[in-house]
Structure formats: C-alpha cells, structure tokens
Specification:
five-stranded parallel β-sheet; 2 domains; 11 helices; alpha/beta; Rossmann fold
Length: about 220
Amino acid sequence: MIRVLVTDDDPLVRAGLSLMLGGATQLEVVAEAADGREALAAVQEHRPDVVLMDLRMPVMDGIEATRAITAASDAPKVLVLTTFDADDYVVRALSAGAAGFLLKDTRPPQIVAAIEKVVAGEPMLSPAVTEHLIRRVTEDSTDGRRTSATRLVDTLSARELEVAQAIGHGRSNAEIAADLYMSIATVKAHISRIFTKLDAGNRVQVAITMHEAGRL
C-alpha cells in the first residue's frame, strides 16, 4: 500500500481527493492537512510515502513546507497540486524538492498513476513540460550557480553523464536502459550516484544542474 497525505486549505478539495484516492486499492490516505505546518506534523506522525501538496495556503505555504519536508533523509515524495501550470510557484516548488506537479482538474486515474510513478522514482513531468520549467528556473541563474553546477557535473563519470543527460531530457528509467543498453537495476544505481554527486533530491534538480552547467 502507498500511504498518502493530502494537504490543501480547501476542505472540499481535501474531502474530494481523499474520497477519490480511497477508491484505489493500492493507495491509503493516512491523513489530511489544511496548511504547511499541519503537513509537517502529519508527516512526522503518519510517515506517508507521498504528500499531495497545495501551494497557496495560510500559515505556511506549500513551497516552504515542501522544502522542509524534503530536507529529511527519509522524506516522502511531494507531488504539487495546482490550478495553474508553469507558474512561478510551481517552479519554486520543484526547486524546493517537489517530485512533480499535477493540475487539480487532472482525472482521478491519472492522479493515481502519478502517485505510483513518483514512489517508483520515475519522472512525473513530460519532457516538454520539464524543459519549459527548467528554462524558467535557469534563466535567472547567476555566474556563481553556473560555476557550482559545472563543478558538480565534472565529478560524474562518462556513463553517469550520459544518464544525467537522459534524465534532463525527461527519459524514464526504462527508456534510459533501452537507449544506453543497460539493465534497469544498473540505471537505478547510476541515478543514485548522480543524486549524491550533484547534491540533488530528485530528477528535476538533476535537470536544473545539467542545464546550469550547459550540458543539455
């Protein structure tokens, strides 16, 4: 069972999501939260696998909550819920560690599939959306950030660099394995090392670093 925490300041949205997710046999909604601070407490108490996170909330917004939640070594995946796409809030949430985002009008089966994907470590964004959002982040990169990104990327082996570039283009583990003629287990091992070397918490952050280093 995948344990899910639903965070939204609208009680009707929380109730609707919980009811919808409760109908999926592979998911269990373990708690609800009305703001970021409640979400932090619920993560500590219930240890969910995935947090569905609204962005604009009182007390503590979704960006600050995402940053705090993903800072832990055993952090759950954070999947942002939004009523708008490619907004600055979404970009900032992805930079803070969110594993992807969904529009609130996404069909229920797609929400369930997205939750399963992020738990499996797969990219949640399509390549086109990923590249658009990454450009939004990297447009404002400073010389210091670009230098730091280049230094980190230079620590990758030739094979790790190929995998990191594939991640930057939004490729799934299965696609990377097929393209580079390696097993999925080997791909996952490379990705684990890439995360460590690039100080990244998710695939979006790997893509950001690769873009800032000029390697995509």
